[in-house]
Design brief:
Blueprint: H1 2-27, E1 32-38, E2 45-56, E3 59-71, E4 83-97, E5 100-112, E6 122-132, E7 139-145, E8 150-158, E9 166-173, E10 177-183
Antiparallel strand pairs: 1-2, 1-10, 2-3, 3-4, 4-5, 5-6, 6-7, 7-10, 8-9
Amino acid sequence: MKNILLSALLLITAVLAFGQDEHIGIESRPVNNINLSVLGDVSLFGINYERIFFLRPHLALTGRAGTGIFMDLHLFSSKPADKYITFPHYFSVLLGQGRHFFESGVGATFLAGYSENTSIKYYLYPIFAYRFLPLKTQKVNLRLVLPLIMKVRTETWDSGKNAGQTITKTIVYTLPGLALGISF
C-alpha cells in the first residue's frame, strides 16, 4: 500500500512540475517579431511582421506578411534589370527547444509591377529555415533560410539556326536568406 501511495504522489508531483514548466515557457515568450530580411522570400530586401502561436514550448505555428523589392538579373544581357515590389507571406511550423528552432512551411510572394512579357506574378515555395528566438521581449531574433531551387523566369528566343524554332530556358538559382529583427 505504501508503494502505491508513494508512486501516486510521485506521479502527481511530476505532472504538476511539467505542467508549470510548459505554462511558464509559453506565457513568457515574445510572440511578435518585426524583421528586416536580405534575400529569401523572393525579395532582395524586405520588411516583415510575424506572429508566433506557441502550442507547446517545443512547437509553434507562425504567420508572416511583409513587403520587399526584387530585381530580375540579366547576367549575359545589356538589358536593364526589371524591378518589382514584392508582397511575401507564409505559414510555417517551428520545432525546437529553448531558443533554437527548425522551421518548415509554405510561402508565397506576389510580384507587383510585372511587365507584359512575364508569365508568373505569384510564386509558391517551400520554406526550410533555422530560427533563433529570444526568451524575453526587446531582444534580437534571427532567421536563416536554407537555399532552395526556385524558378525565377523563363526566357524564349529564336535560335537563329532554323527559322521559327525557339529555345526556352528556365533560369533557376539557390540563395540563402537572412532576417534579423526585434521580438516584442
